[in-house]
Amino acid sequence: MKQRHARRFLAALAAAAVAIAAAAAAAAPRVEARSGDLVAVGVVSADKMIIHLSRVIDNAPVRDAAMTVVLRGAAHSATVETDGSYTLQTKDLALPGAAAVEFQVSRGAERESLKGTLENAAAAGRADDKSNARQLWWWVLNFAVCFGFLWLFSRRRKSAQN
Fold this sequence. Notes:
Blueprint: H1 2-25, E1 30-34, E2 38-45, E3 48-55, E4 66-71, E5 74-77, E6 79-80, E7 86-89, E8 97-107, E9 110-120, H2 127-161
Antiparallel strand pairs: 1-2, 2-3, 3-7, 4-5, 4-8, 6-7, 8-9
Helix pairs in contact: 1-2
């Protein structure tokens, strides 16, 4: 009986930690740029940006385009992935602060320029990473204590009934 409760407790604790980590990861820096026909959304993770390019009318992905990304005054060509997204890898993405981003898209004879701003506040100070980890463990500890009290309360109640 105790082992079953302990396993449930550990499973609930792990689920809470995963949920909190997923919420922290959801705050990744991103840029959104629009033109009359296209929308580009780029999500940054360290020095890599994954870009999703779609049409405004029907939100269908654009897979047959050549894309160049102008970031901090330097042009970088994005590579097409098999899932239809585009990737860009450069150390300029890890630099702190706001940066103007221009997606230059070429489809046959058509050329469009989509402009946006990338806010990379997370890279500004690594001290935030330390406090985020501390806050994660604080929430996990609080969850564990609350769950422990509920478990003890239910055991006490069951023993009083017997």
